[in-house]
Q: What sequence folds into this?
């Protein structure tokens, strides 16, 4: 483990991974509460369209993907709010369209296969010093907004009607949430890749939910499980030469199953003793 | 706890010639009604009659297309005093571990303002509100582990945390069994008497609300009848709205078509 920690590229990967993991883990609580898992999948796949546009247009793929994903997230949110098409359907239209656009555009560039695989499955070990600051900045801002407006997002997720009646700016907060979601997804793309980022937006919260007795407990457990998954996933990836995204998500899933079993035993015991 | 002053002439809710439509579907067609301060008024009517729409307009969630409304003497959303809102229920994802205390605390979120955290004092108020509905012991329990009736009492507590003088309730007893419904109404009626609260409650349980409310308002896009429960139950309008045989055939009964509906 000590040798593992002594490399500069590993330290960068760990630092980025830990902050992004924590951000995803907090977001995941709201994704679970608002049943938005499918939106996470939709936005993450749409990001590929942005990456391709960036590669072709000579803009940083991360920045292009960020802008593109935020726009797609807003359109999905706007169409859903109008109520003529269901959210599932709106995502079902945008997710393959944007991804197809990404694949088509990328095939025009020479580095197609290599680039595509990198974005689909992530490679956090390739985070350079410049990317590091950018990703840390994105994750930091997202985490800050989530911390500041935690109670508002919670109220909105639990009972939107009552939140609006209490005077909360529901539309603004909903778009803000979609923006943070899109930005975090794009940042986390480097960590676990497009295909796996949506898993990271659900699994930690699912783990937290099985054991927690309050929302704050759920957030703490979700963050803890994400942090442990990032460290252990990266270590296993280094040890056995696995893709980092896959090993992180696999470790997170293992934690979920463990806590699920623990949670059911615990609940059964507490029912017996009650 | 605030004791709300109720004077005979002051109306808690005044609605005049209110119009609203969803696209081309006209929902409210010139609704006029008044609820006097400190009273329990129940809004009845079939599905699609515009009950929930009217409540959402009063809460300021929707904007009317015509007409005037005043709540506690001010336009919706502008009244300096909080309004308590009790919904039909809240639907959480299976297993979401929000505690009873967390739900009750939400009643303070509107007043606290963006980005400010609830303080110990807010928790104290939430605890007091939970106690006032007989749920003081259950603050640490998961909201989802409670029975439907207990969940509704927590939602009343949430609405009470900000010490409102007006409670707006939207089908609060839908899906509850008769015993839980009876406990629900006795809780809100006790609160009404103790605090001088005004209650405005949309409901399908015509029989239940007729027993507890001082006024029934029958809505079917317009107000078809309003007054003491006995008069409204005996009115031809009720029979017409529910497509029901004339009232003299079923003197004290509830329209059959309405029973068993949940909202």
A:
């Amino acid at each position: 483990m000590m040798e593992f920690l002594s490399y500069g590229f590993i330290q960068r990967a760990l630092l980025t991974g830990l902050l992004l993991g924590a951000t995803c883990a907090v977001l995941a609580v709201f994704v679970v509460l608002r049943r938005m898992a499918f939106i996470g999948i939709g936005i993450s796949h749409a990001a590929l369209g942005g990456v391709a546009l960036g590669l072709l247009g000579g803009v940083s793929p991360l920045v292009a993907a960020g802008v593109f994903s935020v726009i797609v997230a807003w359109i999905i949110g706007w169409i859903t709010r109008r109520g003529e098409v269901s959210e599932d359907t709106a995502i079902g239209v945008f997710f393959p369209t944007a991804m197809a656009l990404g694949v088509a555009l990328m095939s025009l560039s020479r580095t197609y296969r290599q680039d595509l695989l990198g974005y689909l499955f992530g490679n956090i070990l390739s985070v350079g010093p410049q990317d590091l600051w950018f990703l840390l900045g994105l994750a930091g801002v997202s985490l800050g907004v989530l911390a500041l407006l935690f109670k508002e997002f919670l109220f909105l997720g639990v009972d939107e009607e009552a939140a609006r009646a209490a005077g909360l700016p529901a539309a603004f907060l909903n778009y803000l949430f979609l923006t943070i979601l899109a930005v975090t997804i794009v940042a986390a793309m480097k960590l676990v890749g497009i295909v796996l980022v949506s898993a990271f937006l659900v699994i930690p919260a699912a783990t937290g939910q099985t054991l927690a007795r309050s929302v704050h407990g759920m957030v703490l457990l979700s963050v803890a499980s994400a942090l442990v998954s990032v460290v252990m996933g990266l270590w296993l990836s280094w040890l056995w030469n696995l893709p980092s995204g896959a090993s992180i998500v696999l470790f997170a899933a293992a934690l979920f199953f463990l806590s699920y079993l623990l949670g059911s035993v615990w609940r059964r015991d507490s029912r017996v003793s009650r | 706890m605030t004791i709300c002053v109720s004077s005979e002439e002051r109306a808690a809710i005044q609605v005049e010639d209110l119009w609203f439509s969803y696209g081309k579907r006209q929902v409210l067609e010139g609704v006029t009604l008044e609820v006097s301060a400190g009273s329990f008024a129940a809004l009845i009517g079939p599905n699609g009659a515009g009950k929930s729409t009217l409540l959402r307009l009063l809460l300021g969630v929707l904007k009317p297309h015509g007409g005037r409304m005043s709540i506690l003497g001010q336009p919706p959303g502008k009244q300096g005093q909080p309004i308590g809102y009790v919904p039909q229920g809240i639907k959480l994802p299976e297993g979401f571990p929000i505690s009873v205390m967390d739900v009750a605390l939400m009643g303070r979120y509107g007043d606290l303002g963006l980005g400010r955290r609830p303080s110990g004092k807010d928790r104290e108020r939430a605890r007091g509100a939970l106690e006032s509905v007989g749920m003081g012991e259950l603050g640490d329990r998961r909201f989802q582990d409670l029975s439907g009736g207990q969940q509704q009492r927590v939602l009343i507590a949430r609405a009470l945390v900000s010490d409102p003088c007006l409670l707006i309730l939207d089908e609060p007893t839908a899906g509850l069994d008769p015993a839980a419904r009876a406990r629900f109404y006795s809780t809100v009626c006790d609160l009404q008497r103790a605090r001088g609260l005004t209650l405005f409650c949309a409901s399908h349980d015509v029989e239940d609300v007729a027993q507890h409310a001082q006024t029934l308002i029958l809505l079917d896009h317009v107000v078809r009848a309003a007054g003491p429960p006995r008069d409204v139950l005996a009115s031809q309008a009720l029979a017409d709205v529910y497509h029901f045989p004339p009232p003299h055939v079923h003197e004290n009964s509830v329209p059959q078509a309405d029973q068993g509906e949940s909202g």
About this structure: Chain A has 14 helices and no strands. Chain A has a mean pLDDT of 86. Chain A has one domain: 2-195.
